[in-house]
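Supplementary Methods, section 5.1.

A reviewer requested that the exact input to the structure prediction be made available. We therefore reproduce it here, unchanged from the version used in the analyses.
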Amino acid sequence: MSSSFKSNDTNVADILKLIANGENQLPDFQRGWVWDDNRIKALIASISNSYPVGALMFLEYGGDNVRFKYRLFEGAKADGKPDVLVLDGQQRLTSIFGSMYCRDAVSTRTDKNKAIKRFYYLDINKCLNSTVDRDEAILSIPQDKMLKSDFGRKIDLDLSIRKKEFENHMFPLNIVYDLIACAMWQNEYQAYHNYAPEILQRYAKFNVDVLVPIQTYKVPVITLDKTTPKEAVCQVFENVNTGGVSLTVFELITATFAADNFELRKDWDKRHEDFINKSALSVNNLNQAVLAVVSSTDFLTAITLLTRYNIKKNGGEAVSCKRKDVLRLSLIDYKQYANQLSEGLIKSATFLKEQRIFSARDLPYSTQLIPMAVVFALLGNKTNDVTVKDKIARWYWCGVFGEMYGGANETRYANDVVGLMSWIEENGSEPETVSRAFFNPTRLLSLQTRLSAAYKGVMALILHAGAQDFISGSAMDFTTFLDESTDIHHIFPHAYCEGQCIERVKWNSIINKTPLFARTNRILGGNAPSSYINYIKKNGHVTSVQLDKHIASHLIDVASIRSDNFNQFIICRAKALLDLIGSAMGKTITNRDSDEVIAAFGQKL
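The structure derived from this sequence is encoded token-by-token as follows.
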């Protein structure tokens, strides 16, 4: 198999000419360069000392596989279609091109990130002084070509006209690769000093020791040929760009669609804003909208999945939405399915609210939204049927409590969409996520924080089961959830449990937690359950019968907390939660009488 790339050392001078002519350009997914003034000076010093500055990577442009929008390097004036795109080396080449080739001042930044414009000069005397480091011989001069002090009142160095350069022995770096301009500057410089022998001798040494190494400097260049597939370009870019920001699939597709004058980012931003507005509980909580977590890459992955499912349905190849598949997404397919998928996402958000998942913070898996949105998009109004919605709910909760969506999921996305659609439309077998899902009863004890998807899932099921606020009896639905600052709190309070030396693994587990309004939790404080129950009743907040009803709505055994019997409470609630989880998954939770369960809880569940 022949190699898809070639490598050779190339003169920087030749590369800069190609950049100026527009033959070498940047793919539009490359970010704007960000090198600061000191880093540019360090780069110039390395080149003038013939030190290596790293290899460059180019991509031949014009093949069927690679069709990105492109743009000129900053400072280049020519226009037209490029022969080569620079994949790696943008910042280095932009810095070299600006400081050593262009006649305009270079746009850069200070070490405090303030935007500045600079010209760069070589101090001839310092360059020839062996005791002076090369970077100290490189001067960065403001756009007016004057170095000033005393808040601009004193001019320390004036290079604003050519004779001032000669007078101060300052060589302008932006002519170094223009051999004719260099020769003219040399003649004028020597004439200005009346051809003094020491000036002639010094410049000759400066030319040999400094200018010629710059003008003949070479860098290794790896060039990928135009047959390189887009997914390889993405992988290569990520491999060579370890010091920068990772390239996303979305940016590559954006550059691809831009070649056909379609602004993908603008289209996505509009859709994302719509997702947030339509999935938020109120305008005051837009940042907590359940669809706020959907990323641009998620959206493209879902469209690819939707596209490939329809192709498969019409006799095409297998459904897949791996990165290489997303990178092959066409603009035609995007335009055909984007609106349909957007509707699928909105319906998914409505479904999640019905499951009592109201905010992004409480969403078990954002990744599960991808296949869910595709299924809702494919089924349309059929998802209003109870039988259809029940199957989607079973699949959803099996994914949550089977903890199926925590890793790389592209294969699961595809399998679940195909499996769910067959299960729903053809009454086929259960999708793999449903059939394989398993919840170990002892997992309840290890659910200690909101970081776990299953932890969030249990809270949603408690809300869905009809949990009421202890004091007001208000249902914890979307009308009160965020307005009342509902959050997860301990039933047997933290302070009380530690005072009673109860095992942390039990009192801090999901079994001892429930959603409560913030004001109710403040009343509970750190007191024993019997104490805060009596306090609530004594202060006339609620009758004893009402309070018992409200507490029981959280699947809490009232007798055990009225008697502060933690052990009885933990067993009763663990059993209730397992029943609730089993009902949501549509399957019996097994192993409730295993040795592991008995060892953990002291009895079977």
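The chain is about 50% helix and 10% strand. These observations are discussed further in the main text.
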